[in-house]
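[job 0412] stage=complex_fold ligand=heme C status=START
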Amino acid sequence: MPRTSLPVMMAALLMLSACDRDMMSEVGFRLPEGDAVAGRESFLYMQCNQCHTVYGEDLPAIPFEEPPYVTLGGPVTKVKTYGELITAIINPSHELAEGYAEEQVSQDGESNMYVYNRYMTVQELIDIVMFLQPHYDVVVPEYHYRVYPRR
Ligand code: HEC
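[job 0412] stage=complex_fold status=DONE, emitting structure tokens
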């Protein structure tokens, strides 16, 4: 059996993993533009308001359910990109919403949010994202520098 040198094997492995990464790249991913009004309707129809309020929107409460506890939109310090919003909806456990205690929004690392992938159409997804995105308001974080020495 021919002996393969370690550096050659390492190089081959590296090339393979680079290949893998490229195949799974999200570069070039683009959905068509959605309709925010239809998105609001889908949001209510799918009862996302069971767990969510949307900053600046007056959404009806769902009778006999606990009040919603995760706010979507509002002032954020970092742009919520289109890609992040889509990921948050179709892969909720990928990254949990910031600003909540883990045990409040997840269990064993899994988001408490339902996975809608078998029920939500692509059209509903892109409309909902179109509805949500303008509600995020990017603000520059305020830093309070302490000046030393303090007297
Ligand atoms: C049973 C409760 C529940 C329902 C219903 C629900 N969600 Fe969520 N959702 C959560 C929780 C809890 C989080 C925070 C944890 C996380 O990021 O997954 C969350 C997070 C999100 C986030 C990310 C927020 C952020 O700041 O990162 C988006 C966007 C979102 N949900 C959209 C939706 C949409 C759209 C629907 C309806 C199709 C929906 N959710 C239905 C519980 C729910």
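Residues 43, 46, 48, 50-52, 70, 72, 85, 88-89, 92, 96-97, 105, 111-114, 116, 128 surround heme C (CB under 6 Å).
[job 0412] exit 0
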